[in-house]
Protein backbone atom coordinates (compact mmCIF):
# COMPACT_ATOMS: atom_id res chain seq x y z
CA UNK A 1 0.00 0.00 0.00
CA UNK A 2 1.31 3.45 -0.92
CA UNK A 3 2.52 5.67 1.88
CA UNK A 4 0.09 8.34 3.03
CA UNK A 5 2.03 11.57 3.43
CA UNK A 6 1.10 13.49 6.54
CA UNK A 7 0.14 17.14 6.85
CA UNK A 8 2.14 19.27 9.28
CA UNK A 9 5.25 17.19 8.54
CA UNK A 10 8.67 18.25 7.25
CA UNK A 11 9.91 15.84 4.55
CA UNK A 12 13.61 15.84 3.72
CA UNK A 13 13.81 14.84 0.06
CA UNK A 14 17.01 13.63 -1.59
CA UNK A 15 17.48 14.87 -5.15
CA UNK A 16 19.86 13.79 -7.95
CA UNK A 17 23.52 14.83 -7.75
CA UNK A 18 23.79 14.96 -11.54
CA UNK A 19 21.77 12.33 -13.38
CA UNK A 20 18.07 13.28 -13.22
CA UNK A 21 17.07 9.61 -13.12
CA UNK A 22 18.68 9.20 -9.68
CA UNK A 23 15.52 10.08 -7.78
CA UNK A 24 13.17 7.69 -5.98
CA UNK A 25 9.50 7.14 -6.77
CA UNK A 26 8.78 8.08 -3.18
CA UNK A 27 10.49 11.47 -3.49
CA UNK A 28 8.70 12.26 -6.76
CA UNK A 29 5.35 11.50 -5.17
CA UNK A 30 6.23 13.51 -2.05
CA UNK A 31 7.23 16.55 -4.11
CA UNK A 32 4.00 16.26 -6.07
CA UNK A 33 1.78 15.99 -2.99
CA UNK A 34 3.51 18.61 -0.81
CA UNK A 35 1.86 21.96 -0.22
CA UNK A 36 5.18 23.72 -0.80
CA UNK A 37 8.74 22.76 -1.77
CA UNK A 38 11.48 24.69 0.05
CA UNK A 39 14.51 24.83 -2.25
CA UNK A 40 18.07 26.10 -1.95
CA UNK A 41 17.89 27.50 -5.50
CA UNK A 42 14.35 27.70 -6.90
CA UNK A 43 15.59 28.08 -10.47
CA UNK A 44 17.56 24.85 -10.23
CA UNK A 45 14.76 22.93 -8.51
CA UNK A 46 12.19 24.24 -10.99
CA UNK A 47 14.02 22.33 -13.74
CA UNK A 48 13.88 19.13 -11.69
CA UNK A 49 10.17 19.52 -10.98
CA UNK A 50 9.46 20.27 -14.64
CA UNK A 51 11.26 17.07 -15.69
CA UNK A 52 8.75 15.07 -13.63
CA UNK A 53 5.67 17.16 -14.38
CA UNK A 54 5.41 18.54 -10.86
CA UNK A 55 3.79 21.95 -10.35
CA UNK A 56 3.97 22.26 -6.55
CA UNK A 57 4.66 25.87 -5.41
CA UNK A 58 8.32 26.65 -4.71
CA UNK A 59 9.80 28.88 -2.04
CA UNK A 60 13.45 29.72 -1.42
CA UNK A 61 15.31 28.61 1.67
CA UNK A 62 19.08 29.14 1.66
CA UNK A 63 22.05 30.31 3.71
CA UNK A 64 21.29 34.00 3.20
CA UNK A 65 17.59 33.97 4.12
CA UNK A 66 17.37 31.07 6.60
CA UNK A 67 17.06 33.34 9.66
CA UNK A 68 13.91 34.91 8.21
CA UNK A 69 12.55 32.01 6.15
CA UNK A 70 13.06 29.24 8.68
CA UNK A 71 10.45 30.51 11.17
CA UNK A 72 8.04 31.17 8.27
CA UNK A 73 8.29 27.53 7.18
CA UNK A 74 7.76 26.39 10.77
CA UNK A 75 4.59 28.51 10.88
CA UNK A 76 3.32 26.80 7.71
CA UNK A 77 3.99 23.42 9.28
CA UNK A 78 2.15 24.44 12.45
CA UNK A 79 -0.79 25.44 10.27
CA UNK A 80 -0.91 21.87 8.97
CA UNK A 81 0.88 22.27 5.64
CA UNK A 82 3.17 19.58 4.26
CA UNK A 83 6.63 20.97 3.47
CA UNK A 84 9.20 19.16 1.32
CA UNK A 85 12.78 20.39 1.75
CA UNK A 86 15.36 19.87 -1.01
CA UNK A 87 18.93 20.98 -1.59
CA UNK A 88 20.49 21.70 -4.98
CA UNK A 89 21.84 18.15 -5.09
CA UNK A 90 21.83 15.13 -2.83
CA UNK A 91 20.60 14.88 0.73
CA UNK A 92 19.27 18.07 2.33
CA UNK A 93 20.91 19.10 5.63
CA UNK A 94 24.32 17.73 4.49
CA UNK A 95 26.63 20.74 4.08
CA UNK A 96 23.62 23.07 3.60
CA UNK A 97 21.24 25.15 5.75
CA UNK A 98 18.64 22.40 5.84
CA UNK A 99 20.23 21.29 9.12
CA UNK A 100 19.12 24.59 10.69
CA UNK A 101 15.52 24.01 9.60
CA UNK A 102 15.62 20.49 11.04
CA UNK A 103 16.70 21.90 14.41
CA UNK A 104 13.88 24.46 14.32
CA UNK A 105 11.38 21.70 13.54
CA UNK A 106 12.66 19.58 16.44
CA UNK A 107 12.32 22.54 18.82
CA UNK A 108 8.75 23.08 17.56
CA UNK A 109 7.94 19.37 18.02
CA UNK A 110 7.14 19.01 14.30
CA UNK A 111 7.44 15.51 12.75
CA UNK A 112 10.43 15.06 10.42
CA UNK A 113 10.63 12.30 7.81
CA UNK A 114 13.81 11.71 5.76
CA UNK A 115 13.44 10.28 2.25
CA UNK A 116 16.86 8.81 1.38
CA UNK A 117 18.59 8.95 -1.98
CA UNK A 118 21.70 10.16 -3.76
CA UNK A 119 24.76 11.35 -1.81
CA UNK A 120 28.02 12.37 -3.47
CA UNK A 121 30.36 11.26 -0.68
CA UNK A 122 28.98 7.72 -0.42
CA UNK A 123 28.63 7.41 -4.20
CA UNK A 124 32.33 8.17 -4.59
CA UNK A 125 33.32 5.94 -1.67
CA UNK A 126 31.69 2.74 -2.93
CA UNK A 127 33.43 3.08 -6.32
CA UNK A 128 36.79 4.17 -4.91
CA UNK A 129 38.21 0.79 -3.89
CA UNK A 130 39.19 2.32 -0.53
CA UNK A 131 38.20 1.24 2.99
CA UNK A 132 34.41 1.29 3.35
CA UNK A 133 34.27 -0.36 6.78
CA UNK A 134 35.33 2.84 8.52
CA UNK A 135 35.19 6.36 7.12
CA UNK A 136 34.85 9.96 8.25
CA UNK A 137 32.89 12.60 6.34
CA UNK A 138 34.68 15.97 6.55
CA UNK A 139 32.81 17.76 3.76
CA UNK A 140 34.00 21.20 2.69
CA UNK A 141 37.10 22.46 4.47
CA UNK A 142 37.23 26.11 5.66
CA UNK A 143 37.92 28.64 2.93
CA UNK A 144 41.19 30.02 4.37
CA UNK A 145 44.46 28.21 4.97
CA UNK A 146 44.61 29.55 8.52
CA UNK A 147 41.40 27.70 9.37
CA UNK A 148 41.99 24.64 7.16
CA UNK A 149 45.29 23.63 8.78
CA UNK A 150 43.91 22.95 12.27
CA UNK A 151 41.13 20.81 10.77
CA UNK A 152 43.62 18.74 8.77
CA UNK A 153 45.91 18.37 11.80
CA UNK A 154 42.93 17.15 13.82
CA UNK A 155 41.92 14.46 11.28
CA UNK A 156 45.50 13.44 10.50
CA UNK A 157 45.40 10.61 13.03
CA UNK A 158 41.95 9.30 12.04
CA UNK A 159 41.75 5.74 10.79
CA UNK A 160 39.52 4.86 7.86
CA UNK A 161 38.86 6.78 4.67
CA UNK A 162 38.53 10.56 4.85
CA UNK A 163 35.85 12.12 2.61
CA UNK A 164 36.14 15.73 1.47
CA UNK A 165 34.11 17.93 -0.88
CA UNK A 166 35.87 20.67 -2.82
CA UNK A 167 35.17 23.34 -5.42
CA UNK A 168 37.19 23.53 -8.66
CA UNK A 169 38.75 26.95 -7.95
CA UNK A 170 40.28 25.75 -4.67
CA UNK A 171 41.02 22.06 -5.19
CA UNK A 172 44.68 22.37 -6.21
CA UNK A 173 45.48 24.43 -3.11
CA UNK A 174 43.65 21.97 -0.87
CA UNK A 175 45.37 18.95 -2.46
CA UNK A 176 48.80 20.48 -1.78
CA UNK A 177 47.82 21.10 1.84
CA UNK A 178 46.59 17.51 2.17
CA UNK A 179 50.03 16.31 1.06
CA UNK A 180 51.80 18.71 3.45
CA UNK A 181 49.75 17.71 6.49
CA UNK A 182 48.64 14.11 5.86
CA UNK A 183 51.56 12.96 3.73
CA UNK A 184 51.50 11.38 0.28
CA UNK A 185 48.70 8.92 1.05
CA UNK A 186 46.64 6.90 -1.39
CA UNK A 187 43.70 8.89 -2.68
CA UNK A 188 40.87 8.98 -5.19
CA UNK A 189 39.54 12.15 -6.81
CA UNK A 190 35.98 11.78 -8.08
CA UNK A 191 34.81 14.34 -10.61
CA UNK A 192 31.31 14.99 -11.96
CA UNK A 193 29.75 11.95 -10.26
CA UNK A 194 26.76 10.42 -12.13
CA UNK A 195 27.20 12.91 -14.98
CA UNK A 196 28.34 12.37 -18.56
CA UNK A 197 32.02 13.09 -17.84
CA UNK A 198 32.25 11.17 -14.55
CA UNK A 199 35.90 10.45 -13.76
CA UNK A 200 38.03 8.77 -11.09
CA UNK A 201 41.73 9.52 -10.55
CA UNK A 202 43.44 6.96 -8.31
CA UNK A 203 46.93 6.89 -6.79
CA UNK A 204 49.13 8.74 -4.29
CA UNK A 205 48.02 12.31 -3.57
CA UNK A 206 51.05 13.68 -5.43
CA UNK A 207 50.14 11.69 -8.54
CA UNK A 208 46.44 12.61 -8.66
CA UNK A 209 47.31 16.24 -7.95
CA UNK A 210 49.61 16.27 -10.97
CA UNK A 211 47.04 14.53 -13.18
CA UNK A 212 44.39 17.07 -12.23
CA UNK A 213 46.78 19.97 -12.88
CA UNK A 214 47.49 18.66 -16.37
CA UNK A 215 43.85 18.23 -17.39
CA UNK A 216 42.38 21.23 -15.54
CA UNK A 217 39.93 21.41 -12.66
CA UNK A 218 36.37 21.53 -13.91
CA UNK A 219 33.22 20.27 -12.21
CA UNK A 220 32.44 19.27 -8.64
CA UNK A 221 34.85 17.08 -6.69
CA UNK A 222 34.83 14.44 -3.98
CA UNK A 223 38.27 13.68 -2.53
CA UNK A 224 38.83 10.37 -0.73
CA UNK A 225 42.05 9.94 1.26
CA UNK A 226 43.34 6.86 3.06
CA UNK A 227 43.26 7.04 6.86
CA UNK A 228 46.25 6.99 9.18
CA UNK A 229 48.28 3.81 9.54
CA UNK A 230 49.59 2.44 12.84
CA UNK A 231 53.04 3.86 12.12
CA UNK A 232 51.58 7.33 11.62
CA UNK A 233 49.76 7.06 14.95
CA UNK A 234 52.96 6.33 16.91
CA UNK A 235 53.79 9.27 19.22
CA UNK A 236 56.88 11.24 18.29
CA UNK A 237 58.23 11.14 21.87
CA UNK A 238 60.27 13.94 23.46
CA UNK A 239 61.43 15.48 20.21
CA UNK A 240 61.98 19.12 19.42
CA UNK A 241 58.56 20.49 20.36
CA UNK A 242 59.56 24.06 19.55
CA UNK A 243 60.46 23.14 15.96
CA UNK A 244 57.14 21.38 15.45
CA UNK A 245 55.23 24.34 16.88
CA UNK A 246 57.23 26.72 14.68
CA UNK A 247 56.43 24.64 11.59
CA UNK A 248 52.70 24.84 12.31
CA UNK A 249 52.88 28.57 13.00
CA UNK A 250 54.66 29.06 9.66
CA UNK A 251 51.68 27.30 8.06
CA UNK A 252 49.28 29.84 9.57
CA UNK A 253 48.22 28.03 12.75
CA UNK A 254 48.16 30.32 15.81
CA UNK A 255 50.57 29.50 18.64
CA UNK A 256 48.00 28.27 21.17
CA UNK A 257 46.44 25.88 18.66
CA UNK A 258 49.90 24.74 17.47
CA UNK A 259 50.89 23.85 21.05
CA UNK A 260 47.68 21.84 21.47
CA UNK A 261 48.24 19.97 18.18
CA UNK A 262 51.89 19.12 18.95
CA UNK A 263 51.03 17.96 22.47
CA UNK A 264 48.34 15.63 21.13
CA UNK A 265 50.52 14.42 18.26
CA UNK A 266 53.47 13.61 20.54
CA UNK A 267 51.48 12.34 23.48
CA UNK A 268 53.15 14.99 25.63
CA UNK A 269 51.77 17.24 28.39
CA UNK A 270 50.58 20.53 26.94
CA UNK A 271 52.62 22.38 29.59
CA UNK A 272 55.86 20.75 28.39
CA UNK A 273 55.21 21.79 24.79
CA UNK A 274 54.24 25.30 25.92
CA UNK A 275 57.48 25.68 27.91
CA UNK A 276 59.52 24.54 24.90
CA UNK A 277 57.77 27.08 22.67
CA UNK A 278 58.11 30.09 25.01
CA UNK A 279 60.84 31.63 22.85
CA UNK A 280 58.68 31.56 19.73
CA UNK A 281 56.73 34.64 18.60
Percent range for β-strand residues: 15-25%
CATH architecture of the largest domain: 2-Layer Sandwich
The averaged pLDDT comes out at 91
- Order of SSEs: EHEHEHEHEHEHEHEEHEHHHH
The CATH superfamily of the largest domain bears the name Tetrapyrrole methylase, C-terminal domain
Count of DSSP H/I helices: 12
**Quaternary assembly:** single chain
> Which sequence of strands runs across the widest sheet?
3-2-4-1-5
Number of domains: 3
- Helix percentage range: 40-55%
Describe the largest sheet: 5 strands, parallel
In the CATH scheme, the class of the largest domain would be Alpha Beta
Structural class: alpha/beta
Task: Chart the SSEs and their pairings.
Layout: E1 10-13, H1 25-33, E2 36-39, H2 42-51, E3 58-60, H3 66-78, E4 83-86, H4 98-107, E5 112-115, H5 120-126, E6 135-140, H6 145-155, E7 161-166, H7 171-182, E8 186-191, E9 199-204, H8 205-215, E10 221-225, H9 230-233, H10 241-250, H11 255-266, H12 270-276
Parallel strand pairs: 1-4, 1-5, 2-3, 2-4, 6-7
Antiparallel strand pairs: 7-10, 8-9, 8-10
Helix pairs in contact: 3-4, 6-7, 7-8, 10-11, 11-12
